[in-house]
Structures are given as C-alpha cells and as structure tokens.
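Technical annex B. To support the medicinal chemistry partners, we prepared a structural model of the target in complex with flavin mononucleotide, based solely on the information shown next.
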Amino acid sequence: MNVQEMAGKLEIPVIVAPMFLVSTPAMTLAACSEGLMGSFPAHGTRTREVFEQWLVEITQGLKRLHEDASGSKIAPFAVNLVVHPSNTRLQGDLELCIKYQVPVVLTSKGAPTDVIARIHDYGGVVLHDIASQRHAEKALEAGVDGVIAVAGGAGGHTGTINPFALMNEVRRIYRGPVVLAGGMTTGRDVLAAQAMGADFGYIGTRFIATAESSAPLGQKRMIVESNATDVFFSASIDGAPANWLTKSLLAAGADLDVLRTTLPGKVVAAAETRKRWKDIWSAGHGVGNIDDIPSTVELCRRLKTEYRAAAGVFRSAALPTENLQDGTKQAPRAIA
Ligand SMILES: Cc1cc2nc3c(=O)[nH]c(=O)nc-3n(C[C@H](O)[C@H](O)[C@H](O)COP(=O)(O)O)c2cc1C
C-alpha cells in the first residue's frame, strides 16, 4: 500500500492518534469502522503477548467489519512503534507488526533505515513523528513514506513550533505526505490543516474523552473542565517535552515553580510524584473545546459531518461570516 491508497480507504483524512494508556482495541476498531484510521502504541500493551492479543482482536474485528460493510469505507489501522534503541521491545514488537502485516506503522524517536525497510518489505506504510524541519530531513533520508508534524500545543510528547511555521518549513523541503498534529478537535480543524498544506489531521486529546478510551474517568472529566490555559508544558516530568493537565500535576504534589525553573531533560518529578502518565495526565491545548464524553463512533460521525460542512462552505468560496454578523457575546458553554 502507498499513502495515496491509504488515503483512499478513509472517509475523511483523519488518523486517531496513538496514546499511551488511552488507546484500546475497541477505540481503534470503532474509528476504523467509521472510516477514520484508528491506532495504538505497541508499548501501551503491557507485554509482547498482550500486543499480539490486541493485533488478533483488531485484525479479526476488521475482517468482520469488511464482511458486513455496506458500501462505507473501513479504514486500515496503525501501530506506533518507538524505534529508538532504548526501546528493548522493538525487535519483538516489529516481528509482530510483520507477522500481522500492520498496514501503517507510526514510528517515533529516531528513524532507523532497517526498521523502515522491513515494514516496506510486506507493503506497510511508515509515517514518522517530527517536530522540526531538521527532524523531517533525517526521517526522509531514512526513507519514511511521510511525516507527522507535531506542532506546539499537542498532547503527549509535543513539538513547540507554531503549526503554520512548522508546516511551512516542512513544505520548503518536502512535497510528500504530511500529517499535522496539535490541538485539533473538530472536522473543520482538519480542513484547516489541509488548507495549511497538510494531507491528514492527527487527533489525540479529543479522543481521550470517549467511552472506549482507557483513560480514568477523572482524566476525562478534567479534560472537559479544562481550557488551554490549564495545560502545562514541561520536559521535566519524564525527560521529554510534553503537555500535562495542570490540575493533575498539582494533585500529584508537583511544584510548578520548580518545574518552570528546571533545565529541560532534568527529570525532577520522578521521585516525588506517583507513576507518571498514570497519575499525571497528559493532554493538549485542544481541551478547551471538549465538552462531552461521547462514544468513539459518535465522535467520528461528528468529525465527518463537521469536515464535510466546512468543505462545502469553502468550496462555494464563501467565507463563513456568522461570527461577523452575530456580534453578541456567547455565554460559555455549560460543562456536562
Ligand atoms: C495521553 C497521551 C498519550 C500519548 N501517547 C503517545 C504514544 O504512546 N505514542 C505516540 O506516538 N504519541 C503519543 N501521544 C501523542 C499523540 O499521538 C498525538 O501526537 C497528539 O495527541 C496530537 O495532538 P492533540 O492531542 O493535541 O490532538 C500521546 C498523546 C496523549 C495526549
């Protein structure tokens, strides 16, 4: 499969991003059933055996969906592999991707040519996480099929560059497939990403607050109650630059002033906080536009409706003017 064929299997150009301790087989399958690419990180499964169980569940689930499909597209799924040498599970997890012919592999942290070649050997597509033009250059040299440009404001390990600036820098060196990530919560946002030069949108945080996500209810509720200003950027929780829900940092006893003044990469919170990621919750700037905890299917349908409505508006070349016409101040939406 190449990226163009991959795009042809999607109802709208969206990848539901892989999220540690959030993505589940049920979420992945639900997204694929609606024609959005579902995904999960291999390292989100406790062991290689559990990873294999998930692959079996998803592969069989997709087979059933294809048998029952009534004309609507069933999307392929993707797995995130951390391809850095520090990942001791890499070889075993890669073997399983090959065994189950995972259609799309989302690689992060380093881009080794041999891993990419082995995925290409069975016809898999490799998309690689980047946060700068330099990262993109290195990934492209290694032979990836496309890049995932992770802009500032994304959930999880994030980039820091403004999405317009990052997209433009990537497009200066590369005309191939680009997935844009960071802060998207609506179908209209995905269309906007395409207008900026991206081919696909990568949506994470919005999907944490769904029924199928394995995030604790407290994290889902905190997302519904948070705005972008309640998201704290720090490289000192687990050593990599990431966005965290401020309220979860405070609940875990973290001192924000200490975090603010710690040199990047110096992990300060490991000792005095409970298990990172499990008790300190990550989310991106998109939280302020998340008001509910729907099922994954419901959310995917909403994204499709929004995307198509926005595409219709822009196709007719009429810029939406409802905000200009209605000068009234909108009351903040009530929290469900
Ligand atoms: C809780 C959480 C866990 C994440 N875990 C991973 C992961 O294991 N692997 C990965 O490649 N990206 C991970 N990400 C990043 C997402 O794949 C994606 O880049 C990001 O969510 C996109 O930005 P958004 O959250 O603003 O939509 C994670 C993000 C969040 C919020």
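Notes passed to the chemistry partners:
Residues 17-20, 22, 41, 44, 80, 106, 108, 129, 150, 154-156, 181-184, 202-205, 282-284, 286 surround flavin mononucleotide (CB under 6 Å).
The chain has a mean pLDDT of 92.
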